[in-house]
Amino acid sequence: MTRIAILGATGYTSLELIKVLLRHPQAEIVAITSRQEGNPHVAMVHPSLTNRLDLALENLAPAEVAARAECVFSCLPHATSAAIVPHLLDGGCRVVDFSADYRLDDVETFERWYGEKHPDPSRLGKVVYGLPELFRDRIPAATLVANPGCYPTSAILPLAPLLKAKLIDPHDIILDSKSGVSGAGRTAKLITHYPECNESLSAYNVGRHRHTPEIEQILGRACGETVDVIFTPHLVPMDRGILTTAYLRPLHDITEEKVLETLREFYDQEPFVRVVDHLPATKDSTDTNFCDITARVVRGRILTISCLDNLIKGASGAAVQNFNLMYGFPETTAL
Amino acid sequence: MTRIAILGATGYTSLELIKVLLRHPQAEIVAITSRQEGNPHVAMVHPSLTNRLDLALENLAPAEVAARAECVFSCLPHATSAAIVPHLLDGGCRVVDFSADYRLDDVETFERWYGEKHPDPSRLGKVVYGLPELFRDRIPAATLVANPGCYPTSAILPLAPLLKAKLIDPHDIILDSKSGVSGAGRTAKLITHYPECNESLSAYNVGRHRHTPEIEQILGRACGETVDVIFTPHLVPMDRGILTTAYLRPLHDITEEKVLETLREFYDQEPFVRVVDHLPATKDSTDTNFCDITARVVRGRILTISCLDNLIKGASGAAVQNFNLMYGFPETTAL
Amino acid sequence: MTRIAILGATGYTSLELIKVLLRHPQAEIVAITSRQEGNPHVAMVHPSLTNRLDLALENLAPAEVAARAECVFSCLPHATSAAIVPHLLDGGCRVVDFSADYRLDDVETFERWYGEKHPDPSRLGKVVYGLPELFRDRIPAATLVANPGCYPTSAILPLAPLLKAKLIDPHDIILDSKSGVSGAGRTAKLITHYPECNESLSAYNVGRHRHTPEIEQILGRACGETVDVIFTPHLVPMDRGILTTAYLRPLHDITEEKVLETLREFYDQEPFVRVVDHLPATKDSTDTNFCDITARVVRGRILTISCLDNLIKGASGAAVQNFNLMYGFPETTAL
Amino acid sequence: MTRIAILGATGYTSLELIKVLLRHPQAEIVAITSRQEGNPHVAMVHPSLTNRLDLALENLAPAEVAARAECVFSCLPHATSAAIVPHLLDGGCRVVDFSADYRLDDVETFERWYGEKHPDPSRLGKVVYGLPELFRDRIPAATLVANPGCYPTSAILPLAPLLKAKLIDPHDIILDSKSGVSGAGRTAKLITHYPECNESLSAYNVGRHRHTPEIEQILGRACGETVDVIFTPHLVPMDRGILTTAYLRPLHDITEEKVLETLREFYDQEPFVRVVDHLPATKDSTDTNFCDITARVVRGRILTISCLDNLIKGASGAAVQNFNLMYGFPETTAL
């Protein structure tokens, strides 16, 4: 049994992570933390966990976490996580970090997009990006894994094979993404107040969403060229799910069949990517670790449509997939 | 044109009130207030009003309001409203108060259920309860009208005729109510955070919702006896609408036809109560000032089912109905 | 491995059943049936099962099913299921029947409420009702189990302990139930067309829902007396979940604590009933096999509030719980 | 009073049309038709109209309609409407046609995209397209107006001014549209069955939605050049609202301010187009005849975002706007 701690355990990704880990035969959750006072029982914060996990949320110092746990999932906010992670690594823990802190290679890019000073800049550029479909080889030996963002996963998985195969122009990429509301987190705000966002649809952070440089960096790494994307996120009145519609310019004449075949070959052995002929709905992958992808050619452009559950393949499922690879368990365990 | 001010104009009832009044040929909104700093334009707070109302939200003293407006709709919270209303009345305004402050006759009842000292206790018991279907005669001459609560309207309209006709036991009344989320107001809270209440249903404030004494008082007044109710509100994942299922004990053998006939006769001339044979859905009355009512007799009990839009017939539509009566306009104007 | 067939595999309960069984280490799905022509692959009908189950839907005769499978889950409609089940039993299969066909003891009651002739009347009254919390002892030896209805489970679990303990009047029971839309099945109808039922709430089948006699029979068996209920179902705009608010008359003065204690003692050893102090939301038990129950005493009445996922504890989860007991697997396997 | 008939009055656009017309001081609905047997009262089909409109749905021949009504709103399906309309015109009626039958200039384009023979081909190319913002001059004299499609209105209004001003490339236009479910009509189908589309998002008819040639034709007419669009519609779990995100290639360097200014000048006098600085949500225009538009420049591309209520500005509100222009009433009457 691997002893696990979860930092920042009051949010939606933590809740899903706990649910996945409770099904895992090799994982034992030994600590969950939050800054809430009074060490509330986890069932006070997540009533769905009543009788399923008997732990209190504690406000633990990194050393206390490291004394109890071998593997730490950090669900702390950006700029907070990287202030803690070095202490956990020093304490001998392996860490899967859900924040954006270790995803970007470059400290200036981080500070420009996130507007905060990076607490651990020297590690940037050396941390494996935990998308097994692209970087599986590097994960087993990693002590620290940067768990991908939800939008980036939905954008990178369909595009990376096409960029690698030099089928599309890396400088003319439009990503129109639509996400359920859980992606906005669990903090009550007016924009996610039920009567505000229910029965409504809107774009947000147009041209300045922080997942933009993450998508560009990873796609650039995949194809060995710089990549530019226009990324537009939209808020959809549903709990979960991301659908990304990508509009791509082919470099040569190409058929729909060839695009689908390229995707299919690339993901042939992947347990969690389903290249499908039909147009996928987000509900097909809700509560699963799958990413569903299809493609169409429309009037000379390639369109890809990709769906995933932002809390599972877009966060906690991917984290457990990484955990499985780090510890040598079958990659699909508990997923 | 009647000059109108709306106090506390940032919430959902105010927004609906403004929309109704914009259709009213005899009403001119001359002031809207809030404590927000910087006098934001109403369209900053309610984007749907862009190009429809050109006013800023101002933080006005009661005297300033009274200097501008003849009629004031107060959408202030309880215990706040009654601290302001006396000054408005002194300033010559007529007032429709949306808060609970003037609905109860008895200061002790108010202070027990609301947990606050009443700022204007001497007026309690003298203010007309603005439910025209029961108290129309008293409204035209009123300077102050207590606008009914949303749940009370949904409960009083089906029950008052049956109690008046001595058809049901006033001490064995069960009210199982279900409300959309806008009833909880516009302040962001965890319980009304989208991913918390979406795709979920729960009861709340069981046995201690503040509308209980209001329902009992008005029904008691209707039938001349004390009335006891068990009132259980539930939160439903939808924006608007209340459905109240009432379980009543008949005092004598009675048929469904007789119950429906009693309701139909009582509301025969009412423009906004529809006694129907079918089982109404809340959507039938969404965005309208109607209350739909039907009845069934099941295994010796009478059931009534009533639906209304909590923001219209349950709040702002009722307020304009009262306004029309106060100023001698046709009662259905703008509704 | 137990070889399993699922009859009528196109609906929502079948889909959830398949998902649960795919997690079950001792179950192998060997046949799924429907009357759809052309033997479509299951992923054509349930896209979420793409790459998860590689079977076609076949139109199989009972003998063909019995030749392949040891255990059959019948998700066929009432009056259809009991025409097939005898052949499966004759063929040596054990059967969990999701329909209402074997739940009632009495053929006249069945035919009055369901309006159809019963195809297998001689078995009525001899089939175990598959609610392990009440009838666990009889399940391991059963060849045929009648899987409970979703509303009945939500009503029986909170009430049975109180009736057994003679705490409440069996003739004054009001059940106000609210269900998500998946309970209405997967056949497209106007009433469940998205723009009809979304953002709307309504009661349906008031006084004549077919689960009424099932609730009364099982509660009557639990307490050894006849039981009468008024049962009112409501349709709520959400996918899943049932919440039942029960209004009960205590036979003696009683405290909330005593009611909760009675429930807690009764379910102390049960893996899937959570007696909680807080007011449960349906979302707490979504996607789980739990039934959450609490109680309140309000103005001399006992209220119980119970929540469950209509497709899991109200159907497919309960069925796998029964399957586990029938085959000697740990009761919580895959749940 | 203008006597009005509505053909095909069972759907959602008809319901909204009736609600708008009930507020219109110069309109009297004298006939509503459907092929439903038995002449049901409108309140049987649209319960929300109980006590608001006292008419039965009749199966009337065109001559009967023409005998009663001056103006006819045809909400019949495509290829059905154009088989009726000529008879109405011959009978002296003026017609607003909601179908696609008279929107396209070219019979071959119609027959290729709609897959049906056009019943009245000789009129194609001579019917005014009822988008007052572009073709107001031609509407007052029209006897037949082709009411625009919902997606086309959401796409044409933001793009026409930019194309006319030669700011964008007419051959590189991507339209990513998202619509609520009412756009799919009122016929119950699996794809719009509540548990299928609730909590889910999907693209549909990618590259082959029938509104594509309509958008291209009208935009082409606006700018005097051929226009090519890639149009991708998505189904969003909400009742109403369309949001279209357009990705456009500027022909010259341009600032966001200049794009907004171009839009603002173009729509300066328009009562129903609101050019806004903020990112509009569909809810801002729900239940109104407004179209909200904004623009952004992102990495060298122009993005426009436009929102409207598909049943009002996208259908019935636009129809009444046309009606007002045809009969010389103030254009905003009842809207």
Describe this structure in words.
The structure is a homotetramer of 335-residue chains. Chain A has helices spanning 12-22, 42-45, 62-68, 81-90, 107-114, 132-135, 150-164, 194-197, 211-223, 256-266, 312-327, and strands at 2-7, 27-33, 57-58, 71-74, 94-97, 128-129, 144-146, 168-179, 202-203, 229-235, 242-250, 273-275, 291-298, 301-308. Chain A is of the alpha/beta class and 335 residues long. Chain A has two domains: 2-126, Rossmann fold, CATH 3.40.50; 151-310, Dihydrodipicolinate Reductase, domain 2 (2-Layer Sandwich), CATH 3.30.360. The first copy, chain A, has a seven-stranded parallel sheet, with helices on both faces. The first copy, chain A, has a seven-stranded mixed sheet with strand order 9-10-8-11-14-13-12. The radius of gyration of chain A is 19 Å and the shape is globular. The two termini of chain A are 17 Å apart. The mean pLDDT of chain A is 97. Chains A and B meet through helix 8 of A and helix 8 of B.
CATH superfamily of the largest domain in chain A: Dihydrodipicolinate Reductase, domain 2
**From the helix content, strand content and strand pairing of chain A, which structural class follows?**
alpha/beta
Element pattern of chain A in H and E: EHEHEHEHEHEHEHEHEHEEHEEEH
Oligomer category: homotetramer
| Gross morphology of chain A | globular
**CATH topological fold name of the largest domain in chain A:** Dihydrodipicolinate Reductase, domain 2
Instruction: Assess the beta-strand content of chain A as a share of residues.
Output: 15-25%
- Share of helix of chain A, binned: 25-40%
- From the N-terminal CA to the C-terminal CA of chain A, the straight-line distance is 17 Å
Uncertain residue segments of chain A: none
Largest interface: A-D, 42 and 42 residues
The CATH class designation of the largest domain in chain A is Alpha Beta
